[in-house]
Queue: 2 jobs
Job 1
Amino acid sequence: MMLWDNVDHNAEEQIERIAEAIGSNDKIVSFEAVLRDPDGNDFKTSFEKCSCSDFKKRKLPCKHMYSLAFFLGLLEKLKVEKNLTRKDMGIPAGTVFHIEYKGSDGKVSERDIEIQKITLKNDKLYLYAYCHISHSVKTFLANNILSMSYEGRQIKNLRKILEIEYPSPGDLVAKLAAEALEPS
Ligand SMILES: [Zn+2]
């Protein structure tokens, strides 16, 4: 998007104002934006609040508020490395998820896994899980998990959940677990 492309920024009056803006010590203390996601949903976002359900529920900065801060250069993009254990996520011991997984060789396999830990590292999400096929703990790249179900119930929003651009791991997993563990 070009800003004000029908304005002559070289006009004397505009140059004066541009120079004042460059020399200005004004600070942004409040900012209201409308963010549109790829599905066309609009969110009214500011530093104080957001119209999304995540903010309404948690009253803590949501991904839109972080996006806004990143966009305005007010916050460095976080290089997160977060670990969440099964306990952190509130997943009971012995909970078995069924997944379809695309390996690095492109082959798709079906496995029963018990999630032990989820790690978010440089924007990639990894699941460490005990695999019932190999009888060992394996690392699964979340993006290669094609589907996941719990007791026959599909976790519907898996792709969406895993493709959040700046996921807050707690959230992510809470959503995963809530979808999987909600009573049918
Ligand atoms: Zn939001």
Job 2
Amino acid sequence: MPHPKVTGRNVHTEILISRYKFMRNFVNTQDRAPKRVITISFASDTKQELCKISIGKKCCSLAEAYGILLYCNTFTDKEIKVVTENKALVQRLPKLFEKVFTLSFDQKPEDNEPEGKKAFVIFDTKKIAKILQSFGYDTKKVYAHHVNFAILEDDCCKASFIRGAFLAGGSVTDPAKRYHLELVTDHYNVNKETYSVLVELGFEAKNASRNGNYMAYFKQSEAIEDLLTTMGAPLAAMAVMNAKVEKDMRNSINRRVNCDTANLEKMVNASIEQVEAIRKLEASGSFENLTEKLKETARLRLSNPEASIAELAAMSDPPVTKSCLNHRLRKIVKLSDRKSDKT
Ligand SMILES: [Zn+2]
């Protein structure tokens, strides 16, 4: 912010500038975002909420298990492997597989294992064959995975499928940071076909590939809210909504503060100019020639360099209007300009 060119600043001006700097700093500190209580992970909280949904209808449970398998670590005719560090999913997985396929994992984490990544594995080919058959796969042929849409005819099953995909291969970013929800699979066709499932649910994902994986993702807060609700996580959806409101509010406060700072600069520049003008009039001896009203205003300004026009108007005795006071100050500046032109 360029101050007006001032030669030989006097004490008043210095005080004024230091007050201005103080105010400016004060305004700038208002700019900072409030500190947040950071949860361990928004994605993990969301998965926990999703896992609270009771394992219900057979059709939806099958669809959820399908989503998990197509988005998990390994799903071949030789091995199935789901790795997760989400405690709620660790609880849900064995129950879901028991209900849908009436079978258990060949390898699963012990109850007393420390926190961290846990693996659920099936390597019994008979079990794997049973699972493949329940999705309508021909177990004699080994091929690239495709989504069997026949399993996902109803909307309830489509939503459950997406929930499963999210639980195994999905993530959502803390909405306080940014808006991002993704579903990642290593099956090319599955990513393409999940896109269609999402479209049928009313969502249009963006697609990308990353390190040999395929990703459907969302960047719009509204879409993320709706998808979380569809999957069965209304609390997470609410958190996204709240973060959006908070962010919008902060932006509007920042706009206000910036605008106030600009006004403040204008005000301070004007005050500096007025104080300098009065000092000049005093130095040249013409201060005494001013009218009583102008003298009073000049004295008020000198003793209150940081006051606004409205404040100075109210301090005047008798009080005057803002425009009257403004007029007097302008006159003082004009008179001092005329003086300095002559010299
Ligand atoms: Zn269903």
